[in-house]
Amino acid sequence: MIAETKTEISFWEHYKKVWPYIKPYKFRAILAILLAIPVGALDAVIAWSLKPFMDVVLIEKKTEITLYLPLLIVLFTTIQGFLTYTTIYLNSWVGTKITHDLKRALYQKLLSLETSFYDKNNSGTVVQRFSTDADTACTGLLDNFRLFVSRFFSSLSLIGVLIYNSWQLSIIAIIVLVCALLPLSQVRRRIKGVISKSVTEASTIVKNYNETFSGNQTIASYNLQESAYNKFDNTLKNLFKLSMKMIQRTGWMTPMMHIAVSIGIGGVIGYGSYLITTGTITSGNFVSFITALIMLYGPIKSIGKNFSNVQVSFLAIERISDILDIEPTIYDKENAKEIKGVEKQIEFKNVWFEYKEGTPVLKGVNFKARKGTTTALVGNSGGGKSTIVNLIPRFYDVLKGEISIDGVNIKDIKLKSLRENISVVFQDNFLFDGTVRENILLGKKGATEEEINQALKMAFLDDFVSALDNGLDSEIGERGAQLSGGQKQRLAIARAFIKDAPIVILDEATSALDNKAEAVVQKAIENLMKDRTVFVIAHRLSTVQNANNILVVNDGVIVEEGSHETLMKDSKGAYLSLYNAQFKSKTVKKK
Ligand SMILES: Nc1ncnc2c1ncn2[C@@H]1O[C@H](COP(=O)(O)OP(=O)(O)O)[C@@H](O)[C@H]1O
Ligand SMILES: [Mg+2]
After folding, report:
1. Burial level of 536, CB count in 10 A (0-12/13-18/19+)?
2. Whose CA is nearest to atom 25 of ligand 1?
3. Higher model confidence: residue 303 or residue 111?
């Protein structure tokens, strides 16, 4: 799992982490925030104008200000409206830009991570942490920050109106407000744990959808609808509990403030009546004061919400910076070399490997594969065959020992160059949503029509493709859903063929197929193996008999090595007993 920062990070440190992303847009961002100040401050105009209206018009019965007072109110409100639009527009512009930049950086990070990251994290976590969090972090942060600023200044200007009207009443009001705002400082600490759990549950939901999508046939055939539903239901129930917990921890703030404001209004009316009767303030002061106080309720109430949302965004930023801090463990060394194929040989020297610390899966693997030869790996399942071949393109790195190509440790070769030189065909190959052509071109960008046709021919796909309505431009569906197992396999072979890499790895490339399909795929594979340095893992021993060298892998070590003929001679050997076991099961089936 992605590590989470346990220590408290200060506002300053958050700020330092987001700053590089804000920096390119700093002027617009600052402008948006600055514009939010008058937007808030103009709220006070109406409350303030009530004082002259009351005192001059109602009491003194003079009417000259009725000429300009209504005009002023409309004018200021229009200005406020215009500024509001501008700041919302600017904010969304900056927010979306920053969010997208951040998503780009996160996606690049995702692409740079090695297989073991994908082994440990599920698809839901990835969607949540690499995409949703970026939205929460930036768009949420800027929006709420803008609202926070505008409401803060709205409050400030209304407080100004309060003080202008009566400093005595203002003291009561301000003391009450400060008491109401104090608990805000506790919000972040209180919500952090709840949010982190909610994010995990939300990613479980995304993972559930992904699994339902990819595993729909398994769900149908094992009648798993009910248990899948229950799992989903449970996650939602947990999320519900967490949402309610979140409300318990933040929802009391609004009513608390409501109560505090009403206490303030009560106190002000009581004391205010006394101040009017003693002539300390005018009734205009009083009405203007009460209006400002009531108007204060709105911004102060939402300041609480904006403030906790800003904290939610800060926590998202914390999670994002945890991700940006992940260092890929498999990367290019500074002086990494390029290679051009294999000159002499590929060698495994005392290679140890483990997926989980303390459980070695390979325990000292030694062998050599000369250029242009085929090395077959056989043995019981779980013995470590796939692990051995996955180390060659550095999907994982060895724990101890080394793998070298012509004496150069593969860790000293540029990853890009190493992988350019290797084609891999698995039992289950990933095809992308798109057309046949697009999937083949993944093997070689900008390949000519002739090269594509050649690859199709070599993969025995030409007849199939020419029978399709749109030929090469036919859609194959997500993960190649519209193709048969054999067709998918041959498309993967065509893709590998056009890549034309000197090293070829075939991991159970035919095991998923029936005999007839296998025969065709087998021919396609033989085409792919020609003149290349090949590593082949095959369940059926008939397919490995022609290999130059056969490695029998058992429990992480190579227990036997040699050609089919030599290995068959050892009457107590592991290869012979594997061979006999398969031969027997075949004869049993025939009966
Ligand atoms: N991604 C992984 N994470 C943890 N353990 C793994 C992973 N892949 C394989 N293993 C374990 O490593 C051992 C060797 O697996 P593998 O190389 O796939 O065997 P083979 O290909 O010979 O059937 C098995 O015990 C398997 O459970
Ligand atoms: Mg395997």
Report:
1. buried
2. 382
3. 111
What is the location of CATH 3.40.50.300 in the chain? Answer: 339-416+548-591
Rg (CA), the chain: 35
pLDDT tens, residue by residue, 382-425: 999 999 999 999 999 999 999 999 999 999 999 999 999 999 98
Confidence of residue 478 (pLDDT cuts 50, 70, 90): confident
Quote the CA–CA distance of 405 and 32 in Å, as a whole number: 57
- Torsion sign (Cα): 537, 539, 541, 543: negative
Give, for ligand 1, the residue of 116, 119, 355 to mutate: max count of ligand atoms closer than 8 Å to Cβ: 355
Nearest CA, atom 5, ligand 1: 355
Task: Tell me, yes or no, if the pTM score tops 0.90.
Answer: no
Which among 565, 497, 39, 59 has a CA at the least distance from the CA of 282?
A: 59
Answer CATH for 339-416+548-591 from 3.90.180.10, 3.40.50.300, 3.40.50.720, 3.30.1360.70 = 3.40.50.300
Closest to 431 measured CA to CA, from 463, 472, 476 = 476
3-class DSSP assignment, residue 398: coil
Could you tell me which residues are beta bridge partners of residue 402? 349
* Per-residue pLDDT reduced to its tens digit, 486-520: 888 888 889 988 998 999 999 988 776 666 667 77
Q: Which atom of ligand 1 is nearest to the CA of 556?
A: 14
Distance CA 48, CA 46 (A): 5
Going 386 to 392 to 394 to 398, the CA torsion angle's sign is: positive
If one residue of 386, 535, 544 were mutated to test the ligand 1 pocket, choosing by the most ligand atoms within 8 A of its CB, it would be: 386
In words, the CATH class of domain 11-324 is: mainly alpha
Residue 119 Cα: closest atom of ligand 1: 1
